Amino acid sequence: MKRRHAILLLGGASSGAMSVDTGAFSSVEAERGVEVSVEDDEDAYLGLKQVNRYLPTSSTTQTTDSVDYGPTDTVQVKNQFSDPLDLTVDVESTGGVVDDEDISVDDVPKGGNKLGVGDEAFVAVTCDTNGDGRLTLSLEGTAGGAVVEATRQFRVSCLDVRFNGDNGNAVVKGEFTNLPVTVVFKNDTEVDRTISSKSNNGSGTTESNGGAADPDERAVLHPRSGGEGGNDAIERVVIGGTVFERS
After folding, report:
1. Cys-Cys link to 197, which of 37, 95, 156, 217 (CB 3.0-4.6 A)?
2. Is residue 165 domain-shared with residue 126, that is, in the same domain?
3. Degrees to nearest 5, angle at CA 84 with 32 and 109
4. Which residues 6+ apart lie within 8 Å of 14 measured at CB?
5. What is the extent of the structural domain holding 146?
6. φ, ψ at 101 (rounded to 5°)
7. Shortest CA distance to 156 belongs to which of 173, 182, 135?
8. Are residues 133 and 241 located together in one domain of the fold?
9. In which order are the strands placed within the sheet that holds 242-245?
10. Buried b (16+ CB within 10 A) or exposed e, 64-81
11. 167-to-16, 64, 226 alpha-carbon distances in Å
12. Which residues pair with 180 in a beta bridge?
C-alpha cells in the first residue's frame, strides 16, 4: 500500500528534554548508545493519543463538528518538549474501509513549518463509507541527540448519521455494539443512551466485506414522545468527540 508520509521540519531540542509519554514512543536512545528509560514517566514531552475513533462518512449530509478537534481528526501528535524537535511521521491503512488516499497528516501546524513548543499535528481520516478501518502510525524523531521511535495501530469506526425529515428520528448507520451516544432534543435537554446496530430483518451485526458494514445495519433513535418536529425531536447526536447535527 502507498504510505502517506510527512516530515515535520523542526529544530533540535535540548538534550535535557528526553522524557516522553509511554504512550508516545516504543524506545528512546541517546547519544553514544545511552538508553533513556520511559517506563514510568508521568511528564510527557511528546504526546501521541487517539482523539476520535468515531468519524463521519463523507456521505453525511448534516453538519458535523467535533467537540474538541476537527470532525475527521483521529490521532493527535503534540510537542511538549521545551524546544522544537525534528519528527518524521509515516501513516498507512492496514485494513477495513479506510484507504491510504483517505489519510492525511497536518504537517503545517500553527506557527509555520515547525512543531513548536505546545504545538500539535493531527492525522485525519476521511470516511467514504460506513464500517471499521485500521491504520498504522510510525514516528521517528531526534531531540538533542536522542532518537525516538514508535509504531502504533489505531482503529476507527466510520458512521453515517441521518435525521429523517420532520419525524424527529435520527438513524445511525454502521456496524457497532453497545455504542454510547448522547441524544440532544430540540428543547436542549439531553439523555445518554447505548445503542447497537441491527439489519432491517432484525438480526445483530455481522462482519462482512473486510470491515465494511452491511448497508442495512443501523440503529434508530426515536423522540421521547413522538416528536413530529416538536420539542422532543432529536436535534443532535454526540458520538465520541463528534457532534452530528440536524441541518
Report:
1. 217
2. no
3. 135
4. 81, 82, 83, 143, 144
5. 4-158
6. -70, -15
7. 135
8. no
9. 63-66, 242-245, 234-239, 179-185, 190-195
10. bebeebbbbbbbbbbbbb
11. 61, 20, 8
12. 194
Query: Within this chain, do residues 37 and 106 fall inside the same structural domain, yes or no?
Result: yes
Q: What is the pLDDT of residues 90-120, one digit of tens each?
A: 888 988 888 888 888 875 554 445 677 787 8
**The domain boundary residue, chosen from 158, 185, 217:** 158
Where do the H-state alpha helices sit in the chain? none
Co-location of 191 and 218 in the same domain: yes
Backbone φ and ψ for 102, nearest 5 degrees, come out as -90, -5
In tens, the pLDDT along 223-241 reads: 876 444 556 889 999 998 7
Q: Which of 143, 158, 173 is the last residue of a domain?
A: 158
Q: What is the pLDDT of residue 116?
A: 72
Q: Are residues 149 and 170 in the same domain?
A: no
Question: How, if at all, do strands 170-173 and 146-163 pair?
Answer: antiparallel
